[in-house]
Amino acid sequence: MAITREGRICSFCGEPGGPGTDLQLMGGLGAQVCARCIDDFHEMLHDEELRAAARGASPWDSMTDAEMLATLPMILSSAEQNLAFAHEWVDLLRTRRVSWAEIGRALGVSRQAAWERFARKTGDKGATA
Fold first, then answer.
1. Can you tell me the distance from the alpha carbon of 65 to that of 61, in angstroms, rounded to the nearest whole number?
2. String of b and e for 60-83 (b: at least 16 CB within 10 Å)?
3. Average pLDDT over the chain, rounded to an integer
C-alpha cells in the first residue's frame, strides 16, 4: 500500500495540491504544507516585525463571524485529512501483520477499541489478531 499526496490539501491555507496540481505539498503524519506557506513562515521567522506581530493576538481575534464561518470547512477538511492518514497508517501496520493489541497499546486503548475505531473502515476483520 502506498500513501500518496494526491487529493490532499495544505493544512495551513486549505489549498488543494499534490500530484497533477501546481501546488506541491510537503510534510507527513497527515499534515501537509505548500511551498507558499513555507515561504510565508520562513519570511516571518527572519523578520523581527512579522515575528512580533505573530506573537500578538490570535488570527481569529480580528476575524469577522463570516470569516470564521468561511474558515470552518477548511479546519474540518484538515482534521478529516489527518484522520484518513491515521487509517492509512493502521492499514500499513496491519499489512505488516502488526496485531490489534499492539496498535491499541500504541494508542493507549484496548485491542477491541483500536479495532472498532479502524477495522470497519479498512475492512480488516481480524479482531483477534
1. 10
2. eeeeeeeeeeeeeebeeebeebee
3. 83
Start-to-end CA distance of the chain, whole Å, equals: 20
**Cβ-proximal residues to 42 (8 Å cutoff; 6+ apart), any chain:** none
Q: How far apart are CA 24 and CA 29, in angstroms?
A: 16
What's the rounded Cα separation, in Å, for the pair 129 and 118? 14
- pLDDT at res. 49: 87
Statement: the pTM of the whole predicted model exceeds 0.70: no
Contact (Cβ atoms closer than 8 angstroms) between residue 10 and residue 32: yes
Question: Which contacts (CB < 8 Å, 24+ apart) does range 74-81 have?
Answer: 74/9, 74/14, 77/9, 77/14, 78/9, 78/11, 78/14, 78/31, 81/8, 81/9, 81/11, 81/30, 81/32
Spatial distance between the Cα atoms of 81 and 9, rounded to a whole number of angstroms = 8
